[in-house]
Design goal:
homodimer; 421 residues; alpha/beta; five-stranded mixed beta sheet; magnesium (chains A, B); kinase (chains A, B); diphosphate-fructose-6-phosphate 1-phosphotransferase activity (chains A, B); PKF_sf (chains A, B); EC 2.7.1.90 (chains A, B)
């Protein structure tokens, strides 16, 4: 009997290292041809499974698969699509089983954040509830660092490094200019509900007085007067003020500082524009000359300044997913277990998908200083190991050399097209 | 007779490599103790000369001076302060001479862009018009790449590399997501009157269809309908659309797309917000989901991804400034002369300050494709050598190790304070 094939898909917002997980998974699967046939990657995530658009990764060279380790974003395409509950839309699951059967798929690997692990969990129930034998393993990924159980999420360490490096550099810039020009610099970073990424900006401050002088966390209600007073105090004391603002920064009543009014496919409000909102507030109230930056995609795609620790862990999660599957584990997700801070050491652990799905890990409140504007030493101890090490991509002609795969689709075997809602 | 001391100052917006010029200047000066005494750096540029705040660089260790080569921004502080004409404000020049005399200063080095070279030129006239013997050499610097005579400006190559790398990375991100999510990504970059930095984004496109699909140059009048049609066409053809927008993008009547209404010390309108303006336009007219980034200071401070060519040239300009001064050249500026594109080679040349000052080098119109949205092959040939090579700073604890100098001020010798306007 030929071994079962595997389905792998990337889901949700991509990161600088999600392809490193794909690399770990495919390279490890290739070492077990007796147990795992081909690895099919979903074209645009789970949507590729439903629409029977399966990429045959066996057609990619070893060199190209290895190059995934240094290539940011989702090499097979990602999606923001959440499966319904089995009770709500049985057709989705029947379709998945149809596709899995047609392509002899016995393993399902889903690489994503909280919403995606929810999807992975639902697929894992197919075995039990619909009698189709499938081994389902989630692979953690999210720049938001908000998955439970795992000490940290692959993707976060690199965005943390990007933000800390950027703040350190921009702070030198404004420090040079503040005597006769710009007094306030604001950098807006991602993190819808949790302040992990904003907190990472705090790593740039190595001694008292260093930038950033103010971090705005979603966890701490924004108080306009207090904020403006703090900006003024910093400008008077240090000559300038550097602010890191989470896109999720919000007023006491839960209103985001900058709510664009748009919503994404999950019904989440689409954010953007905290930095200009704050800049205008400062200009009008204090009159300071300002500059602001919104890093947006640049921060999560910045493979050029990725954390080596992050790359290593992302790879390890992909590798572990195969190992878990081969060990017959179903409905689980490999996690990162921290064994010690100094020296930093970690190992691969395991969490049940039933408990991972739809849980958000918030910043512990003791990671935020009492004034609400800075990180504590324990937060620094937690964050610092995650940005350690550089792992530069190769450069050709002055630019990083990122791989573009062939992404050849497997011939469709089903006669029907799936109708998306 | 003890040799004359030198005054060096940084001026205007700082860059990732202006300190590399300082490094080249100070290291070279130290090799000629018989001809150049101490190098005094102006605390916050020319303002430091007027206020007699002189930093004694001889107190900095060789290691720290060497570290300037990999440290972004202005290590001695910069300023936006333009000297008046000799006729308008003779007191400024009399004060300079007073300070120069008090500290035995016979060399004046000014590191900056167009406005700063104007200041350097005015100082150079002191010899002739006011009888104080001083050798004055400008050192080119500006991310805007708009100085005349020199093939390119130190500082530009690194911001060009940052923008090209960032666009390449963000384009992979949106390509991964466009099937079910974001369709348009807009990155706003610096460049008030010239599209050099925006053009550099074009280097990310290595083959037909690659991002960026649209570049908005200040040189080409913005046409809303044509722009929206092009965005729609790209989304239909490629699945997504990446836009690089210069902060200086403007309508036919010269109105900037996003005019904040603020002005800087030179009377220039302070810009920012083209990206959100375009995003809103696209959302309202085409309904596409968008993301946007404004790099602002991040782009010009990004020493972590500096161009090795740029670092080398910045260092060479500082070194050449000393060599010119020692050769008795006055009122000149070292420039970069391109000798060939492929293989790229260049040498140090010389331009007269009288002709450099207040001239802006625009993008040649044949560098922009006929459709107004892309760069031509000749533009690519010009730009490509400038981003070649990586020159990573050392990292400690996951962050670049940038030097902070002692910056000890020389004891004041004058009894009076200078009164700024």
């Amino acid at each position: 009997m030929s071994p079962k094939n595997a389905f792998y898909a990337q889901s949700g917002g991509v990161t600088a290292v999600i392809n490193a997980s794909a690399c770990g998974l495919i390279e490890t699967a290739r070492q077990h041809p007796d147990k795992i046939g081909k690895v099919y990657a979903g074209h645009n995530g789970i949507v590729g499974a439903l629409s029977e658009e399966l990429i045959d990764t066996s057609l990619e060279s070893c060199e190209d698969i290895a190059a995934l380790k240094h290539t940011p974003a989702g090499a097979f395409g990602s999606c923001r699509y959440k499966l319904h509950n089995l009770e709500e839309n049985k057709a989705e699951y029947e379709r998945l089983i149809e596709v899995f059967k047609a392509h002899n798929i016995g393993y399902f690997f889903y690489n994503g954040g909280g919403d995606s692990q929810d999807t992975a969990y639902k697929v894992s129930q197919i075995s039990e509830k619909m009698g189709y034998p499938i081994t389902c393993v989630g692979i953690p990924k999210t720049v938001d660092n908000d998955l439970p159980f795992t000490d940290n999420c692959p993707g976060f360490g690199s965005v943390a490094k990007y933000v800390a490096v950027s703040i350190k550099e921009a702070a030198l810039d404004i420090a040079s200019m503040c005597n006769s020009s710009t007094k306030v610099f604001i950098m807006e970073v991602m993190g819808r509900h949790a302040g992990w990424i904003a907190a990472a900006g705090g790593l740039a401050a190595e001694k008292e007085g260093d930038a950033p002088h103010i971090i705005l966390f979603p966890e701490i209600a924004f108080d306009r007067e207090q904020f403006l007073a703090r900006v003024e105090q910093c400008v008077k004391q240090y000559g300038y003020c550097v602010v890191v603002a989470s896109e999720g920064a919000q007023y006491e009543d839960g209103r985001f500082l900058a709510d664009s009014g748009n919503k994404d496919a999950f019904g989440h409000t689409q954010l953007g524009g905290v930095a200009p909102t704050l800049a205008t507030m400062i200009k009008h109230s204090l009159g300071y000359k300002y500059h602001w930056a919104v890093a947006d995609y640049l921060q999560r795609a910045a493979r050029h300044v990725a954390s080596a620790t992050d790359v290593e862990q992302a790879y390890a999660m992909g590798k572990a997913a195969i190992e878990f599957a081969l060990a017959g584990r179903n409905a689980v997700m490999p996690i990162i277990v921290r064994e010690s801070d100094k020296p930093y050491s970690w190992r691969v652990g395991e969490a049940p998908l039933s408990q991972v799905a739809n849980q958000e890990k918030k910043m512990p409140i003791h990671f935020i200083k009492d004034n609400g504007y800075a990180i504590t030493d324990s937060c620094r101890e937690y964050l610092s190991p995650l940005i350690q090490g550089e792992d530069y991509p190769p450069y050709v002609n002055g630019l990083p050399h990122y791989v573009t795969l062939k992404n050849q689709l497997v011939e469709k075997k089903l006669r029907t097209e799936f109708k998306f809602d």
